[in-house]
């Protein structure tokens, strides 16, 4: 990193939806002294990393895009990975973000300097300092692969192993015996895509998923023409999609028993494709729909019913040579293993690289569970903000809505710092963080994610839901419209080497 870039006003970490959105909002606020640090060689975040066969979004295209950057030319109602990644590349170009991008700059360490009141950032391509850090690394960034006895030996003997988010496109699955581990959103897209070409496919299913039919179709040329010529029609379409999902929230958060009707739709989706009662029994969940992420597919069940597919209704416990052993004693000989086992969501590795004002890492601060103020700022980490932070996830709608709300909060945060003057920091009060999280967790108690009878990736090691927002996106937007300065301590540098603190009532 060149000498003139050693200090910036803002450093943004990550270039997915959150990072690019933050960069756009900073420019709109008149902040041009910023960089976007990205460890990969291109933008796109999870939509760059997840290029597995069949990868697509389970949120309608017109809702899964920035409100300030509509795309009238989405090809399908639920667009695929290739088109979403291309959209993000266009966004980077349209909003002039390329000069701010620092590709190949993986952040190795960040440390708050209590004397200079700024962040010291070490990357793989040089060091820099920043007044403010916006962490948009995202919870779906670092794949999680379980520690299975015999896995290393399987690879040493020539077996191929990869995670869905690190797909090995150089390995031809044609005619191979393949095991897929997991039944999450990635697995149910991968299985129908690869089933016709593999010799045998074995699914190791620890817990079955609720799968609703995917109402996907091509968007017609006439629709796309109308959205280009009359943008209000695309806005109306987006608004309708948003409104329907807002109306669904109360069932998830207040009345989980009302979701029984939705379960019947999912069961009918299964029954149409799976005639074998034994296989249907394996695939039928024993928990309330919505407790785990509801999945969308009209091809998953038909693929599982094909003669070259086996479903092991147990987790993978051991590998002996090229034989995979399930918890129920089932065995399968395979040539390749694909892990669809999710990500480090509640234990994000980047938290280990961030050291705050008290000399402890973010991971240490969050050892009993992630907590932040309004999903954005953490106690002990001044001038630090997360995009898609704790308890900002959604179970039924578009994360872009939550990201845009957090961008509003970021913009007001920057405005406050500007008004307070140079050498000023905002530090979230521990009492404010604790109060916010008490309210969130109190609302969480009756939600389907807590009482639905499942163990999901929404829960941390202590069984606490630190991932999902227990309300509507409109509620979250109101909660993050503006920064409440009473929730922060203001720290000012009067001169080099000294500082004063101002506590705002």
From TrEMBL:
InterPro entries: FAD-bind_Monooxygenase_sf, FAD/NAD-bd_sf, Flavin_mOase-like
Gene3D superfamilies to which the protein is assigned, alphabetical: FAD/NAD(P)-binding domain (3.50.50.60)
The keyword Flavoprotein belongs to this UniProt entry's keyword annotation: yes
Keywords, comma-separated and alphabetical: FAD, Flavoprotein, Oxidoreductase
Matches recorded under PANTHER family: FAD_NAD(P)-BINDING DOMAIN-CONTAINING PROTEIN-RELATED, L-ORNITHINE N(5)-MONOOXYGENASE-RELATED
Family: Belongs to the FAD-binding monooxygenase family.
Protein name: NAD(P)/FAD-dependent oxidoreductase
Origin species: Streptomyces pyxinae
């Amino acid at each position: 990193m060149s000498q003139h870039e050693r200090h910036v006003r803002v450093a943004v970490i990550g270039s997915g939806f959150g990072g690019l959105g933050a960069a756009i909002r900073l420019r709109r606020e008149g902040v041009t002294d910023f960089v976007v640090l990205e460890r990969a060689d291109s933008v796109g975040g999870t939509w760059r990393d997840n290029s597995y066969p069949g990868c697509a979004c389970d949120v309608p295209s017109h809702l899964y895009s920035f409100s300030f950057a509509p795309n009238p030319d989405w090809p399908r109602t639920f667009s695929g990975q290739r088109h979403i990644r291309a959209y993000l590349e266009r966004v980077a170009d349209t909003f002039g973000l390329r000069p701010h991008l620092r590709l190949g700059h993986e952040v190795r360490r960040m440390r708050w300097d209590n004397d200079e009141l700024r962040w010291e950032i070490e990357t793989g391509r040089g060091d820099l300092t920043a007044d403010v850090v916006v962490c948009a690394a995202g919870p779906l960034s670092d794949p999680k692969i379980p520690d299975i006895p015999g896995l290393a030996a399987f690879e040493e003997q020539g077996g191929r192993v990869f995670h869905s988010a690190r797909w090995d496109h150089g390995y031809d699955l044609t005619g191979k015996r393949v095991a897929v581990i997991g039944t999450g959103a990635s697995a149910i897209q991968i299985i129908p895509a690869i089933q016709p070409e593999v010799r045998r496919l074995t699914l190791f299913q620890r817990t079955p998923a609720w799968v609703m039919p995917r109402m996907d179709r091509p968007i017609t040329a006439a629709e796309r023409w109308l959205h280009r010529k009359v943008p209000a029609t695309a806005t109306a379409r987006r608004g309708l999609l948003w409104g329907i999902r807002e109306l669904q929230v109360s069932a998830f958060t207040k009345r989980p028993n009302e979701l029984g009707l939705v379960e019947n739709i999912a069961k009918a989706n299964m029954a149409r494709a799976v005639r074998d009662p034994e296989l249907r029994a394996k695939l039928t969940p024993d928990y309330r729909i919505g407790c785990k992420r509801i999945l969308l597919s009209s091809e998953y069940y038909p693929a599982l019913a094909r003669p070259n597919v086996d479903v092991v209704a147990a987790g993978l416990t051991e590998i002996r040579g090229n034989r995979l052993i399930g918890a129920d004693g089932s065995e399968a000989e395979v040539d390749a293993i694909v892990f669809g086992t999710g990500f480090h969501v509640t234990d994000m590795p980047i938290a280990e690289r961030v050291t705050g004002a008290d000399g402890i890492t973010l991971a240490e601060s969050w050892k009993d569970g992630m907590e932040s103020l309004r999903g954005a700022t953490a106690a002990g980490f001044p001038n630090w903000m997360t995009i898609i932070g704790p308890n900002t996830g959604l179970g039924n709608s578009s994360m872009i809505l939550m990201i845009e709300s957090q961008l509003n909060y970021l913009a007001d945060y920057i405005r406050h710092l500007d008004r307070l003057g140079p050498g000023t920091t905002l530090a979230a009060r521990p009492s404010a963080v604790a109060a916010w999280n008490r309210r969130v967790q109190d609302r969480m108690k009756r939600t389907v994610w807590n009482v639905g009878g499942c163990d999901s990736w929404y829960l941390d090691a202590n069984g606490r839901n630190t991932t999902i927002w227990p309300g509507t996106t409109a509620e979250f937007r109101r909660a993050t419209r503006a920064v409440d300065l009473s929730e922060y301590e203001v720290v000012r540098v009067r001169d080099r080497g000294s500082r004063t603190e101002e506590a705002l009532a």
